[in-house]
From TrEMBL:
Boundaries of every Sulfotransferase domain copy: 38-288
UniProt name for this protein: Sulfotransferase
Keyword Protease: no
Any one Gene Ontology BP term: xenobiotic metabolic process
Gene Ontology cellular-component terms listed: cytoplasm
TM segment ranges: none
Organism field: Austrofundulus limnaeus (Annual killifish)
Cell compartments where the protein resides: Cytoplasm
Pfam families: Sulfotransfer_1
EC numbers, comma separated: 2.8.2.-
Alphabetically ordered keywords of this record: Catecholamine metabolism, Cytoplasm, Transferase
Classification via InterPro entries: P-loop_NTPase (IPR027417), Sulfotransferase_dom (IPR000863)
MF terms (GO), sorted A to Z: sulfotransferase activity
Length: 297
């Protein structure tokens, strides 16, 4: 069976001021000393922002034509290694990245900006940051955490929501994550900040923006291929992208990785009073009005 034996769910602990679990800190030395190459592309996000969606887009934009067999034989998480993961018997993210023979290498991370290995900045690597509105992010995270034993145990929805608001989540506070990456963009020009809601609303426009940032100019036909391949229903069926082919730490029968893929599913989870409380708290925490999230489109 591909079911991965984990002794117990991990517990959150404070790691240099950020809530983390051991599966993302155990390989810390190798992560911090990771040697980025100038053409590496880092895909960064807070968990559940649509990272996999964007990883797949980039993989197809770069390699879809050149090596189509990649898409059918190599799982996406090997094509785009998750830098900080260290959960034996899964291979370490840093090892997978070191073994990549592609150029550029596509690498995924959920690290807060201050934890990104310094070589990425020194090499002036291109970075794509994916952000998603907090209400849909927390709902997605809740369902994912319920079924994924690599993550801390979850209680009920209202406790989870409160923990999210207090930053008691893996990779710390959503509010700090999106804000500090946004601030980084003001001084680091090789950073493209994109939103799940925009992708959902106008995929073509977002593909063009992404390509212009990456210096790619795919043909209309290539773009159409990418669009079709990464449509939610297609990705959901795609064994190389839906995590069903890999060593499993999650029970997808209860809640699949490709769950809904919608904007505003939070409306099916938040009560009226939870929503009021959340909005009030959000106003206090998000003072930068240049960074604007849409909770519906
Ligand atoms: P939901 O749980 O709301 O469905 P990440 O990859 O960062 O873990 O994000 C996972 C979320 O992105 C899930 O959200 C998943 O369904 C959604 N997602 C993945 N691929 C998608 C696609 N092609 N189109 C729309 N949403 C997608």
């Amino acid at each position: 069976s591909l079911w991965m034996e984990l002794p117990t769910r991990p517990t959150l602990f404070d790691f240099q001021g950020i809530s983390m679990i051991k599966y993302f800190t155990d390989n810390w030395e190798n992560i911090q000393n990771f040697e980025a190459r100038p053409d590496d592309i880092l895909i960064a996000s807070y968990p559940k922002a649509g990272t996999t969606w964007v990883c797949y887009m980039l993989d197809l934009l770069y390699f879809g034509n050149m090596c189509p067999e990649r898409q059918t034989s190599v799982p996406l998480h090997e094509r785009v290694p998750f830098l900080e993961i260290c959960a034996p018997p899964r291979p370490k993210g840093t090892d997978l990245a070191d073994q990549l023979s592609t150029s550029p290498r596509l690498i995924k991370t959920h690290l807060p900006v201050q934890f990104v290995p310094k070589s990425f900045w020194e090499q002036r690597c291109r970075i794509v940051y994916v952000a998603r509105n907090p209400k849909d992010s927390v709902v997605s995270h809740y369902h994912f955490s319920r079924v994924n034993r690599i993550l801390p145990e979850v209680g009920d929805w209202s406790t989870f929501l409160q923990d999210f608001m207090e930053g008691k989540m893996v990779f710390g506070s959503w509010y700090e994550h999106v804000n500090s990456w946004w601030e980084k963009k003001q001084t680091y020009s090789n950073l493209h900040y994109m939103f799940y809601e925009d992708l959902s609303e106008n995929f073509g426009r977002e593909t063009d923006r992404l390509c212009s940032f990456l210096g790619l100019s795919p043909s209309a036909e290539e773009k159409e291929k990418v669009r079709a391949a990464v449509m939610f229903d297609n990705m959901k069926q795609d064994k190389m992208a839906n995590f069903s082919s890999t060593i499993q730490t999650m029970n997808q029968d209860v809640s699949p990785f490709m769950r809904k893929g919608k904007v505003a599913d939070w409306k099916n989870h938040f009560t009226v009073s939870q929503n009021e409380h959340f909005d009030e708290d959000y106003k206090q925490k998000m003072k930068n009005h240049a960074l604007c999230f849409r909770t519906e489109i």
